[in-house]
Write a structure and sequence with these properties.
The structure holds two protein chains of two kinds.
Chain A: E1 5-14, H1 18-29, E2 34-37, E3 54-55, H2 67-77, H3 84-103, E4 118-119, E5 129-130, H4 136-148, E6 154-156, E7 159-167, E8 170-178, E9 184-194, H5 215-222, E10 227-228, E11 233-240, H6 254-257, E12 261-263, H7 287-294, H8 309-321, E13 331-334, H9 345-352, H10 354-364, E14 373-382, E15 385-386, E16 400-402, H11 419-441, H12 449-464, H13 471-485, H14 492-509, H15 522-546, E17 569-575, E18 581-587, H16 593-601
Parallel strand pairs in A: 1-2, 1-9, 2-6, 9-16
Antiparallel strand pairs in A: 3-5, 4-5, 7-8, 8-9, 10-15, 10-17, 11-14, 12-13, 13-14, 17-18
Helix pairs in contact in A: 1-4, 1-11, 2-3, 3-11, 5-15, 9-10, 13-14, 13-15, 14-15
Chain B: E1 2-13, E2 16-27, H1 32-42, E3 62-65, E4 68-71, E5 86-89, E6 96-98, E7 101-102, H2 105-113, H3 133-142, H4 150-154, H5 156-159, H6 169-180, H7 190-194, H8 207-211, H9 218-234, H10 237-246
Helix pairs in contact in B: 3-6, 6-9
Classes of the chains: A alpha+beta, B alpha+beta.
Bound molecules: flavin-adenine dinucleotide, iron/sulfur cluster (2 copies) and FE2/S2 (inorganic) cluster.
């Protein structure tokens, strides 16, 4: 039998973004032995890229805010597909989690009276996002990282988990290779927390990095856990569209929060033309009122640019399709115009949106204080994920937990901006706490060598094949097809076609070959990630076929309206004993009386 | 518009290797990292490099492009001469692993040596601190750091003299400054800075400041004020007493 280095921990956290770091910190505070692995270097996870802010009803800027309002906003934004208990816990606990970051050294922008400043964002009734200019994610990850390194957490950077190990029904650990040397390692653990983030690399146009290959989703699925809400993929309305090489890079919603407006090629603010019924009472119907809202007028209603992301993305698509787009197939996002209203507008833009200024200046040669930006939708965030218990974050595999973007439930059919960073710290903490409890309450599981050997054998196959499929090529083809066949606008025939494509690519992936050796070989890494990408692509497509209505981020051309019956269920994906992917429906978890009343009051 | 450009990329392991030529097509708006990706996807699947955000936010894609330390994702092809081959090499101040990837773990070890944030008791009953924006502007400048280590790469104390065991380098002087100048922090890092962390090795050449992609005024705003604090404490008691009496900044 092959001998691999084995490392033993009570809790193994997979992923070192906000969710993973917060989980590791909590588990280690509980006194158990914690391991933390990540594909990239510490501090480079996606969380570092978050811009706009972290949502928490601190009520520093508007004292009418509170957890109830945040809860109601989150549910409305998610089109009531959310797990109500998760939305409740999130809204209640986010303020404490944000204040805790301050205690650990985070330096948020301040209000005039010296408290944490909060900004407006789409779908949030009051200014709610604590932020640091437009680099909030950096502040958050650095704070957690710098706090965490002093707690004795055993960190393994640049290690990729390729399979979960089980002892009967429960989790027993995970199997990994280190990127640097290509050596295999066995992580023996009583509890595993998945905090691997999203799936954006399944699409061609995305704001996500190479890491987002849906590893956690796929690892959990193959280990027998169920996935939920996989049809809900968020397309952020504003990604860069030009030059081609930067297509998809995010333009923060903070631009619109600061007063940026969307216009078509005729200069028209098209968002005023289509305001959904359920948002009409809280949306401005004229430009003047919208502007006053962005400048903090509490009596003004928000401009339609700050409607939820699914809606804004579709309005942009409509303008482009109907020939009113910008030269490179987007629309215009204009922040420069605020100079007409603000005396020192130019400085204000640079101060509030420094990294956007930088990004456009350097990558597109555009000065956003002078010219409008060109923007269009980009694949951004995965609402769906591992189906977890709302209080403990445990999946239906005992000992396997999930938190952050790879877990499902909080966001329902559409996530509000800022609700992800808060998700990470609220549920990261909960996952860490309960994983530690689980580890204390249970004896060490047994590692089954045959599972380890099978994983090792599979991982090495790409080196041994004498075929010549280029893994990058397969990845690119998948991305193109998912973009075209299972993207923003979906149809039955196209999605069925997508399933055929996926089957075909699976066969090709089984022939993917890599050259070179095992040391830091991105070709090999890409080949191994293919299985995950194909698994999540299939899950997305199957769930999207099943939901025969349009709701939130899921839009079907053949079922363009909401359907009340469909609105009562979540779609669940599971691996059957025979290895096939099964799709089923489960009722959306019921709301407690108190929560129902809140929803009624805030209608 | 597209043109063919030749890239001369360092290939090899553990310091042994050579520059190898790859020619690829460049279209408008491309950055160096795009070209590296294109070469990786079509000609050299195993070409090792790090990247994540492709937008200058994560500090992963540091390399030496035409001899200058830069983020590959923020270096536009149009800013480089296209008639000559473009060389891309790994950072030189850290042990080489493979191709464009170096072992930067030393940086992570260094950070652990710096005393962590220790706030005073919260000012407010909800566990928060009252801080004016003016009081944190400077600290926020330092906290923009994306840990790309380009500054570490150019600092001669590390690059040429290899004094890694004795000197933490500009990145961690910035980190120390962010903590020292945090209005709510109470820890004292000056003895460490003077001794173990080796602030004295910096002779203010300002090379670090010039390469910082976040435009942090590393020397002027972080290192020099820290050096002054160290000097005030350890070498100039009279001036210190004078300052205490007059309350003047003295400089
Ligand atoms: C450009 C951009 C801007 C955003 N802005 C905002 C914002 O303003 N507000 C907001 O709330 N949200 C925002 N989001 C969303 C938010 O940033 C992410 O959803 C969130 O950071 C995800 O955090 P996470 O901890 O779940 O995962 P991540 O931070 O992505 O971390 C995932 C970790 O898992 C590791 N990993 C993955 N697979 C494996 C594996 N197989 N083995 C080992 N390790 C693995 C990775 O290496 C990484 O360390 C933004 C997202 C993007 C892309
Ligand atoms: S100023 Fe100091 S830290 Fe910066 S490069 Fe020069 S010697 Fe190094
Ligand atoms: S200080 Fe600047 S150059 Fe140095 S690591 Fe930070 S961002 Fe990079
Ligand atoms: S890839 Fe993130 S800084 Fe270049």
């Amino acid at each position: 039998m092959a001998e691999f280095q084995t490392l033993t921990h009570d809790v193994l956290v997979v992923g070192a973004g906000g969710a993973g770091l917060r989980a590791a910190i909590e588990a280690s505070a509980a006194g158990v032995k914690v391991g933390l692995v990540s594909k990239s270097l510490l501090g480079k996870a996606h969380t570092v890229m978050a811009e706009g802010g972290v949502a928490a009803a601190l009520a520093n800027v508007d004292d009418r805010d509170g957890w109830r309002v945040h809860f109601a906003d989150t549910m409305r934004g998610g089109q009531y597909m959310n797990h109500p208990r998760m939305a409740e816990l999130h809204a209640r606990e986010a303020p404490d989690r944000v204040r805790e970051l301050e205690a650990w050294g985070a330096v948020f922008d301040r209000t005039k009276d010296g408290r944490i400043l909060q900004r407006n964002f789409g779908g949030h009734k009051y200014p709610r996002l604590a932020h640091v200019g437009d680099r909030t994610g950096l502040e958050m990850i650095r704070t957690l990282q710098d706090h965490g390194i002093h707690l004795g957490i055993d960190v393994h950077m640049e290690h990729t988990i390729v399979g979960l190990l089980k002892d009967g029904g429960r989790i027993a650990g995970a199997f990994a290779y280190d990127r640097e040397r290509g050596r295999f390692k066995v992580f023996h653990a009583k509890a595993v927390v998945l905090a691997t983030g999203g799936i954006g690399r399944a699409y061609r146009i995305t704001s996500n990095s190479w890491e987002y290959t849906g590893d956690g989703h796929s690892l959990a699925y193959h280990a027998g856990a169920s996935l939920k809400d996989m049809e809900f993929v968020q397309f952020h309305p504003t990604g860069m569209v030009w030059p081609p090489s930067v297509r998809g890079i995010l333009v923060t919603e903070g631009v619109r929060g600061e007063g940026g407006v969307l216009r078509n090629k005729d200069g028209k603010r098209f968002m005023f033309e289509d305001i959904p019924e359920n948002y009409r009472p809280q949306t401005a119907d004229n430009e003047e009122e919208g502007w006053r809202y962005t400048q903090g007028d509490k009596n003004a209603r928000r401009p339609p640019e700050l409607l939820t992301r699914d809606h804004v993305a579709r309005c942009i698509m409509r303008e482009v399709r109907q020939g009113r787009g910008s030269p490179h197939g987007g629309v215009y996002l204009d922040i420069a115009w605020i100079k007409e209203r603000l005396p020192r507008g130019e400085e204000h833009i640079k101060r509030k949106l420094p990294s956007m200024y930088h990004q456009f200046k350097q990558l597109a040669g555009i000065d956003i204080t002078k010219e409008p930006m060109e923007v269009g939708p980009t694949t951004h965030y995965m609402m769906g994920g591992v189906n977890v218990d709302p209080d403990t974050q445990m999946s239906d595999v005992p000992g396997l937990f999930a938190a952050g973007e790879c877990a499902a439930g909080l966001h329902g059919a559409n996530r509000l901006g800022g609700n992800s960073l808060s998700d990470l710290i609220v549920f990261g903490k909960r996952a860490g706490e309960h994983a530690a409890k689980f580890a204390v309450a249970n004896a060490a599981p047994r590692i089954d060598n045959s599972q380890v050997e099978a994983l090792a054998r599979r991982a090495l196959e790409p080196f041994e094949r004498d075929t010549s499929e280029n893994p990058y090529q397969i990845q690119h083809e998948l991305q193109d097809q998912m973009q075209d066949l299972a993207g923003i606008v979906r149809r039955r025939e196209e999605m069925e076609q997508a399933l055929d494509v996926i089957e075909n690519l699976k066969r090709r992936a089984a022939r993917a070959t890599v050259k070179g050796n095992r040391e830091f070989n991105p070709g090999w890494h890409t080949a191994l990630d293919l299985e995950n990408l194909l698994t999540v692509s299939e899950a997305i497509t199957r769930a999207a076929l099943e939901r025969k209505e349009s709701r939130g981020a899921h839009f079907r051309d053949d079922f363009p309206e909401k359907n009340a019956e469909e609105g009562k269920v979540n779609i669940i994906i599971r691996k059957t004993a025979g290895g096939a992917m099964s799709v089923s429906r489960e009722p959306v978890p019921p709301m407690s009386g108190e929560l129902k009343q809140i929803i009624e009051e805030m209608k | 518009m597209s043109t063919q450009v030749t890239f001369r990329i360092w290939r090899g392991e553990k310091g042994a290797g050579q520059l190898r030529d790859y020619t690829t097509e460049i279209s408008s708006g491309m950055v160096v990292l795009d070209a590296v990706h294109r070469i990786q996807a079509t000609q050299a699947n195993d070409l090792a490099c790090r990247w994540n955000c492709k937008a200058g936010k994560c500090g992963s894609c540091s390399a030496e492009v035409n001899g200058k330390p830069r983020l590959m994702c923020m270096t536009r092809m149009s800013d480089l001469p296209a008639d000559k081959p473009i060389t891309i090499e790994p950072l030189r101040a850290f042990p080489h692993l493979r191709d464009l990837v170096t072992d930067v773990s030393w940086n992570y070890d260094v950070k652990k040596k710096i005393r962590k944030y220790q706030p005073r008791k919260p000012d407010n009953p909800d566990g928060t601190w009252s801080m004016e924006q003016d009081d944190i502007d400077r600290v926020q400048e330092f906290r923009k750091c994306i840990e790309c280590y380009l500054c570490q790469d150019v600092c001669h104390v590390l690059r040429e003299h290899g004094l890694h065991p004795d000197f933490i380098g500009p990145r961690f002087l910035v980190y120390s400054a962010a903590l020292e100048m945090h209005p709510a922090d109470t820890a004292d890092r000056l003895p460490d800075l003077k001794n173990d962390l080796g602030i004295g090795y910096c002779n203010i050449t300002k090379c670090c400041t010039k390469v910082c992609p976040e435009s942090i005024a590393i020397t002027d705003n972080a290192i020099i004020p820290l050096k002054e604090r160290v000097v005030d404490r350890y070498y100039d008691p009279i001036k210190r007493i004078f300052r205490a009496i007059t309350g003047s900044g003295g400089d």
